[in-house]
Amino acid sequence: MPELTLEQFMAQAHAMECEAVERYTEFADMLETANNREVAALFRTMAGYETRHAEQILAQMGWTQAPPPPGLLTPPGMEAPEALPVEEAHYLMQPWHALQLALVAERRAQAFFALLARMATTEAVRKAALELQAEEAEHVALVQAWLAKVPAPDQDWAVDPDPPRYTD
Amino acid sequence: MAASGPTRAGQSADRPAPQAQAGLSIAIAGSGGSGVMTAGTLLLEAAAQAGLYGLMVRTSGPQIRGGEAAALLRLSPTPVESLDDRFDLLLAVDWQNIHRFADEIPLHAGSLLIGDAEGGEVPQVFLRTGAKTVALPLKKMAKELAGSWINMLALGIAGAVVGIPLQALEGAVRRGWKRPEAALLANLAAVREGMAAAEGLSSLPRVEAGPATEGRWVLSGNEGAGYGALRGGVRFVAAYPITPATELLEWMAPALQKVGGTLLQAEDELASVNMIIGASYGGVPSLTATAGPGLALMTEGIGLAVAAEVPIVVVDVMRGGPSTGIPAKSEQSDLSFAVSGLHGDAPRLVLAPSSISDCVATTQWAVELAETLQAPAIVLSDQFMGQSRAIVQKPALRPGGAQRLTVEAGTPEYKRYRDTKSGISPMAIPGTPGVVYTADGLEHTESGIPSSQARDHAIQLDKRERKLLRHDYGSRWADVEGGGPLAAITFGSATGAVREAVRRAAAQGVALRLVVLRLLAPVQQAAFDAALAGVTRVMVIEQNHGAQLLRYLRGMVDLPSRPASFHRPGPLPLRPAEVCAALLEWAGATSRAKETA
Amino acid sequence: MSDMLAAPALMAAQYKSGYKPIWCPGCGDYSVLASVAKALAQLQRPPHEVAVVSGIGCSSRIPAYTSCYGFHGVHGRSLAAATGLKVARPDLTVLVAGGDGDGYSIGGNHFLHACRRNVDVTYIVMDNHVYGMTKGQASPTTEPDWDNKLSPGGTGIRSFHPLVIALASGANFVARAFSGDPNGTADIIAQAVRHPGLSFVEILSPCVTFRPEQRDWKNLVHPAAVEPTDDAARAARRIMTDDGFNIGVLYAGKRPVYPGGGVPAKQAVADLEAEFAL
Prior knowledge:
The complex is a heterotrimer. By secondary structure, chain A is mostly helical. Chain A has helices spanning 6-33, 37-61, 95-119, 123-149. Chain A has a single domain (6-69, 85-149), classed as Up-down Bundle (Ferritin). In chain A, helix 1 (6-33) runs parallel beside helix 4 (123-149) and helix 2 (37-61) runs parallel beside helix 3 (95-119). Chain B is α/β, with parallel strands linked by helices. Chain B has helices at residues 36-49, 124-127, 138-144, 150-162, 166-176, 181-198, 221-232, 246-259, 269-281, 292-308, 335-340, 358-373, 383-387, 454-469, 494-507, 525-531, 548-556, 576-596; strands spanning 24-30, 53-60, 69-76, 89-92, 112-115, 132-135, 216-220, 236-239, 262-265, 286-290, 312-318, 349-351, 376-382, 389-393, 438-440, 478-481, 486-491, 513-517, 519-521, 537-542, 564-567. Chain C has one domain: Rossmann fold (3-Layer(aba) Sandwich). In chain C, helix 1 (28-43) crosses helix 6, helix 4 packs across helix 5 and helix 5 runs antiparallel to helix 8. An eight-stranded mixed β-sheet of chain C has the order 2-1-3-4-6-5-8-7, with helices on both faces. The model of chain C has no long low-confidence stretch (mean pLDDT 93). At the B-C interface, strand 7, helix 7, helix 8, helix 9 and helix 10 of B face strand 1, strand 2, helix 2 and helix 4 of C. Strand 15 of chain B pairs parallel with strand 2 of chain C.
């Protein structure tokens, strides 16, 4: 674990949140194009939560703009922990599917910050990491509560009677 | 663009109030996997079972999946060849982006708008027409019938409005069903639910089958063209997929396997045209199908077929141009290119089917002409005919089988490109001894040896032109209907709207002759003179921006006086009302001119 | 075929039409014409059962110089025409001929796909590293530093390596020959015709007019040191590392061949109407 100052750590965390916002927004746009408004709106709501989280980091650090992330932390896997994998999108996905994806993403983020807390070399960074972990835990709870309220998907959720349209 | 002459005044070109037997126009719209295209197809199938005639056009947004889509149908007791001016029912499973289809689904104050209250707001553009709106809880109804799909509800509702018996609707669903039995029952229940929900909603007249229901067919223009090609003798197809021709190839691939032929997917259109030339050179009637951009790539190859006198057929399913244009919409804008787009003096055949049903006979004829005249034939179909499905009277079919003039083995002093009176010289088929020759794109002597001599060039140019001009095309070159001194001239898919417009004009006391061209190249002056005997004025009607047919005819043939034009480009289809308005205005202007003269 | 024993053997001369080629004296293509005639004589296929398909260029003039059925098509499309012909008429022996420009430049795409399809035709390219007919521009196989009017000082672009491309794309037989050895070339062509699938024979054929230095090729060519292999990887290694003058059959594989036409009819055309009729 490289030696990170608090500033560097928070810059990295901020960048992660921004990536999450981008990815949720991407999903929202994709689903909106496919006329799946309900799930698009859900992803926009998630993007909103991440945006607020990013703003919180700025406020906490007294930044108007975050410094560039040091890029010293290598997250596991090929992408940021909180980013939804694009290949998991399906134009007919229902809210239940969307929330399942969000749940996985938030849990990964939570685990990532827990790992960083354990490996922190300074008390300031450790404290910050634990705070962020707690924040992610809240997100996890939020998503779980939401999941409990949406119906399970129909058996035929992925069936589209119409074939794909090739318009070129 | 508007017809020539002053802006219209007075005369009504709109259709009279719906009569019991006039038919209905239905649009079923929805998005995001709601299956409205399927609903439309099933409705057409059911209408066929119920003894009706009809036409279905499909439209959608650009998304590959989940896009907004609509099935546009016209159902009638008598055959129909074009969409009507307005729709009587717009049934929207949801309203997401459906406003994008406003131009394609014109409504009127007598129309019925059925939508889902949960499906979003009804777009203003539809409400402004004054149509009667009804909200049904479609999504909720579909959810309550576990395992059913919302498009089946829609099918039931639309079927009830049209007056199609439940039996026919259920039959259509059953026949197309490929999924588990349990789901079938749920969806049949949905159809019944839909019918029940539509009870009392519509004051539109039901459509009932007329007397002539025997021997009807259901097919698309692309399928018809494929079948016509096989009837003509085609047994080799090489092609590259392109919208909106691909379904023609998809139909032909298994069909060729059944009747003993081959379809080869080429790497591009350059390969396609050269492959069919190679196969045809080998003695097998061959065909390819493409659209404007592909035809553009094929021009060099088509020129080779002209010069080497190898028969081929190229079906061009026209779409919005130029360049990539509007791939999924129809237009008649490849005409200029088809009749003149080859370098050098290169006479070739150009034909155009005038309806979905006519795709069969005209493609068959194109194959026969190509084989007889040893020349390339371009068949100008289009997206409207190619991709729309229709319930038609069984097309009148002639026995098929192209006859290529060949030479027998060992014929002495054989010259492949001998200058004959008809211009047609017998072809040696590879494998035949004693009459070996080399086919060439280079100008050549009568023996086929490359030549740059003036005499040889003149002989071969004359020969290649003469064989097309001297041929007796019979009466199939055009359909001439009606009489009188005023004539409308058109071709291809515009014919449906023009024919209906002419009928409406006649109902208002304006008699018009209609000339529907089927053979666009070569042009025979004598045939035109006969068709237009007694005609003092003509109006040329077409769906393109550049008035291509008008300009072509003016250059190629003498027409009585200065021709008028009604032309506008795609993507929207020509409608009977606008054509009728143009005709009436022109006829009125013409008679006024006569009075003041 | 039972007539074969009674009929007199076909001589190489019978495969030539006698028509005088337009090629420059000293052109390697004269030798190639002789090799083709010798090869066909080896195979004893009657000329009227052979078709020679070509594109545009000096080399593509060859069909009319044979007594076989010929098809002189447009630039770069000979393999497409030949594919159509062979699939429609699998009974014919189909030779495809052309130069390096016709085959590797404008014809490049069809070259890839013909090899990929592996149709049973023999593709002979007379490679002289130049566009001869249009008076001396660089071709895809021209050396990067060859000075010419359109690219003064040379194109600077790496030469195309057709044998590797053919092998990688799926050709079933890959060989290099040299027009200066007509008998050896005839043998290779005969082997190529006999071998199923797409048989690619690249024949180094000097252009005396625009590349007079190619007279030296006779000193550079040498027979391939090893036997032909059916192992594509091994063949690839050899071809990629040879000096471009390695003569012989370099790959003779067992790849599946594209089926010819002649599918027997299972039903009549009119039976298809059942699909439309109500």
